[in-house]
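Schema walk-through. Below, the input block comes first and the output block second. Nothing else is stored per chain. Lengths vary across the set, and this one has 373 residues.
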Amino acid sequence: MAAAARAAALVLAGSAAPTSVDLRIPAEQGLRRVELHAASLLDGGDKALAISICDPGAGLDLTRGLEIWVLVSLRSPGEGLQIHAGEGVGRLEQDGSLCISGFARELLELNLSDLLPVLGGLDVEVVFPRGRELALRTSNSAFGVVEGLALIGTQAEVQTSASPDQLQLARERLRELTDQNGFAGRLTLVIGENGLDLAEQLGLSDQQPLLKSGNWIGPLLVAAAESGVRQLLVLGYHGKLIKLAGGIFHTHHHLADARLEVLAALAVQQGLDLESIRAMLQTASMEQAWCWLQAHDLEQAMGLWMAVAEAVEGRSEAYLKRYGCTGMRIGAALFNRDRQLRWAGPEGLLMLRHCGVQLHPLAADSGQGPSLR
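--- output ---
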């Protein structure tokens, strides 16, 4: 994205269309060269369009090969830089504003700032031609990002949760936490930034250390047991943790999905009728399946998701035993798209109670925050 933006701005300033650009990366020495697909003036020279191809690095990512179009046009001098969401770029459902990370914004500003004195103000519109389609394969909508993919960074700079490097960083952080004086053997493993934010809102960070995990959940379970953790509370989005209930312990979507299939299998165990199970399998997401069942039979819906949480605990303990780890209890706690803590397994309920946290009441679908005792 930043490469295409800089290329378009250079063309607008009178340069020949580049085949690559050198980017400055925040907190990084030197420049990083990024190849361009195309760049050209438009509308008689008042606008410029550049296209780059997403390369997320060594990690697995559905954006690999995604075309990124950036349209740059002039604004009045002194109006600075304005960034807009074009087709396929995510917006925040709450207010319709562009969903962009602080890193991505800083990256654009850093690589366009030297051209602003020459060009004056700039409008930058980012387009992901396949963004809307690809967003359907993510959990973006569960966290209020609609219409496309969020702008989070460039190339391998994005911290991919599927990367082995991220697993190593998490292991190092785990050792730091468990080596601290006064560590009591209790830890909360949170899945992703949304899990971390919710854990802090709930006050879990005041009760026991928090460790953020990406998709390498299985190896971190083993590492936690080997590091002296005795009670591990796993907190995550229901659409992510249900994979553990199916025995999938690396949760990146490129490796395995099967979320609706796992839900259907557990629904069979819970005695749901075949028509209901078929209806859930025909939905487009975990959230839609939950909403459908909740509307048709609230009691069955709550029972099924409690069974999912219990299955997460059971399959996680079985995973540990496979690697000879038997001294750690695992509790599971799941939140929904509104970041409401809604379900927990038997062990998870005990661990939440120890931390003074209770599940969100069912009536809170109105959008209230999480409940504390």
